[in-house]
Specification:
With 198 residues, the chain is α+β, with helices and mostly antiparallel strands. It folds into two domains: 33 residues; 163 residues, Immunoglobulin-like (Sandwich), CATH 2.60.40. 22% of the residues lie in helices and 54% in strands. The chain is built from two helices and twelve strands; from the N terminus they run αββββββαββββββ. Strands 1, 2, 3, 4, 5, 6, 7, 8, 9, 10, 11 and 12 form a twelve-stranded antiparallel sheet that branches. The chain is elongated and about 85 Å long. The model has no long low-confidence stretch (mean pLDDT 89).
């Protein structure tokens, strides 16, 4: 009988500790109110853009993307478990580049760069024709998406589950030089662009 009551007592103590820890974590997150990081594009350059329109239309391009990231949380660090930058045109994915996992301290900001290339990749002819037609007019409306998985950390001790989300930066009018001079044929984003969670 005494053995049963000791076991019940220890089970009750453990249960109270678990409930207290869970309540503390819930209260902590209600008080701290974690905010997602803020993203915007500093720069997007597209070079070596070449379209071939035949039975199997192809696209060649190199994308250089600079992404500004700010952690607005005064007490929470953020770990980026994955961070991918995706280039697209007219709702079609063109290519992507991954950025290595990183850590961001509370209330800090910084930029990360991604580069990815598409070499003679076959796409639907309508997509390649659309890019070629816009390039002939001097601007191409590409889009960039940022796909990331993050965790919030409180003093490096308490962490949240992984939260995944996608941001889109569109339309991005990249301006190309009027002449088809191959040595300077780089399309550039003229002004930074905000990105929005979709």
């Amino acid at each position: 009988m005494l053995k049963i009551s000791v076991n019940v007592f220890f089970a009750a103590i453990v249960s109270l500790i678990v409930v207290a820890v869970i309540a503390d974590i819930i209260i902590l997150w209600v008080v701290i109110k974690p905010h997602f990081p803020l993203f915007h594009l500093n720069a997007v350059d597209v070079s070596s853009l070449n379209t071939t329109i035949t039975n199997s239309s192809t696209l060649t391009a190199t994308f250089d993307v600079s992404v500004y990231i700010r952690n607005p949380n005064p007490n929470l660090g953020i770990s980026y478990d994955s961070l991918e930058v995706v280039g697209w045109f007219n709702h079609h994915r063109i290519g992507s580049g991954s950025i290595s996992p990183r850590w961001q301290e509370p209330m800090t900001e910084g930029s990360v760069q991604a580069r990815f290339e598409v070499a003679h990749k076959v796409f639907p002819s309508g997509l390649v024709k659309g890019i070629a037609a816009q390039r002939a007019r001097g601007t191409v409306d590409f889009g960039v998406a940022i796909v990331t998985s993050i965790r919030f950390w409180w003093h490096g001790i308490v962490r949240t589950r992984i939260r995944s989300f996608r941001l889109e930066c569109y339309p991005l009018s990249l301006v190309f030089p009027p002449d088809k001079n191959k040595s300077s044929d780089i399309g550039r984003l003229l002004a930074p662009s905000d990105c929005y969670v979709t």
